[in-house]
């Protein structure tokens, strides 16, 4: 059974309203596949019955389940490698010089999914920061289920096999039955929050590094601009923004400039541009 046009329109409108994610035509099969487990979990016979009931009686908890199911959560340890190489070889050495007095680094892993990116960043800080330095990493995601998983910090053997070197698995994880759990020593510097990047953000201290990777591709141009402006308000003047390989600020928010960072690129707010300033041009 495939979704009708009316059912797809209902779901795409809900996801657009609640998460600013654009579901283009042609995603009907994906939507249905993601919602089948949700329908079963709430006791509906199928997706059609589930969506019909949700339209008749809007249920915030069931709406949240739809958002969680349709939020893409593809992730792995040290994903794509190059941004982490740039962090190690270029970004951290520069920040270590400019933060010599404070000796502290703050990082935001926006759209952190089930936590692999945030904990990968924590491992990098543990191994590359000089003695006496501290760091804070905040991971955020729009999915309640993903935030819960990240806080639990337990991963299956299949999950730890995706990009995590054996030496780091042994050093930063401990056995938890059939799973692996991040050690308390690594977890104490990492926190997670539920957050919608397209909504007004809560007050936060500025960050030295923001990983906003593989998120903008799901938004329209206006929403991308809003997210980038929100990020600029929280990025220190000499801070670094990392986007996904298929993402860019060019043509969206010209207050950023792209800079080479090892074999990849990163973005920095142009000199003299106040944080959160309107897009030029």
TrEMBL record:
It is an enzyme of class 2 (transferase). CDD domains: AdoMet_MTases. One of its GO terms (molecular function) is protein-glutamate O-methyltransferase activity. Residues 1-272 form the CheR-type methyltransferase domain. It catalyses: L-glutamyl-[protein] + S-adenosyl-L-methionine = [protein]-L-glutamate 5-O-methyl ester + S-adenosyl-L-homocysteine. Its EC number is 2.1.1.80. It comes from the Bacteria. Pfam families: CheR, CheR_N. Keywords: Methyltransferase, S-adenosyl-L-methionine, Transferase. One of its GO terms (biological process) is methylation. SMART domains: MeTrc (SM00138). This is protein-glutamate O-methyltransferase. It comes from Paractinoplanes rishiriensis. The lineage of its organism: Bacteria, Bacillati, Actinomycetota, Actinomycetes, Micromonosporales.
